[in-house]
Specification:
Helix content is about 5%, strand content about 55%. The protein is built from one helix and 29 strands. The chain has one helix at about 300-310; strands at about 20-30, 35-40, 45-55, 60-65, 70-75, 80-85, 90-95, 100-105, 110-115, 120-125, 130-135, 140-145, 155-160, 160-165, 170-180, 185-190, 195-200, 200-205, 215-220, 225-230, 235-240, 245-250, 255-260, 265-275, 280-290, 290-295, 320, 325-330, 335-340.
Amino acid sequence: KDNKSENTDLPALPKSEPAHDSFLVVAGTYERILYGLEARVVGSVMTLNPQFIFPAHIGCIKAVSAGGRYLASGSTDEVIKLYDLKKRVELGSLHEHSGSITALQFHGGSHLLSASEDGVICIFRTNDWEPLKMLRGHKGAVNSIAIHPSGKLALSVAQDRTIIIWNLLTGQRASRVKTPQVGEIVAWSPSGSHYIVAYATEVQVYKVGQTESLATVFSKQRILCALVASYENAEYVLCGSQDKRIHIYSADGVERASVVCHENRIKGLSLVDVVLDGVVHAVVVSISSDGRIKTWKLADLLDPICKHAEQSTASDEVMDLVAEPLATYNADVRLTCVASSTATF
């Protein structure tokens, strides 16, 4: 399976349509239960309603991803479970890995990338779930993967203190760089021009094609999840932390604000475009060890920062924001991972 000569050929993703009436939120738990919630939108009001709740694995769920009509979950039981969201049935499971599944990411509805503590990244095509390539470049457990919007590149970080950029057209390693610490999270900016590498208490911002980081974020708190969001022609790094807050940094590494979002540490963040009152808004989904899944309007988090920057000369001031969630659902379990999808059936 490793020596297949054909290209993996991941297509460039079309601009995804924003969700109009509803979108899907999926969360995994320590209790091995998979939660699927429908976020329903009426005007500017959002509600989170359970669609499915079931024990999916025999170990803690570590990763979830949704793409097109498919949903995947991965666990410490070393198995990837697959589901058809349209038919609401389990499709089966993938057993290519020999370690806990640490990361899953769909690329549209055509391909799935999986990563594991076995150090291997696997590329599957969804039309027959055939493993097209096994990417072997890390000498330790892979912690995080991120596919470029073009489908041509992927990033991975691992316990071996390296970040690898993969050429997905060939399934070969394009570059391998040592990191100062163990990289825990990688993520692309929405445009694909930048990416971030998050460590325990730092985030480095990189421009594609450059080996030196553009900026470094220093956090006083343990970073547990991170993503890059675009707003008003600028990019921001959002970090979910041990201190129950989302910390917001500008792309030059300066902390602009933080907001208390939960009653316990924030374990996962996801971003989805949604039409609210006729206007497209980016919505942040957050999960916490407090058992709650919450949705936030990105504008509610970033508008105050933009307004403050226009009025203030003190650029080093970190704002302490208060924001109201759009919706809250209490799963009353220990949540571990989250994904969202605008695909509705």
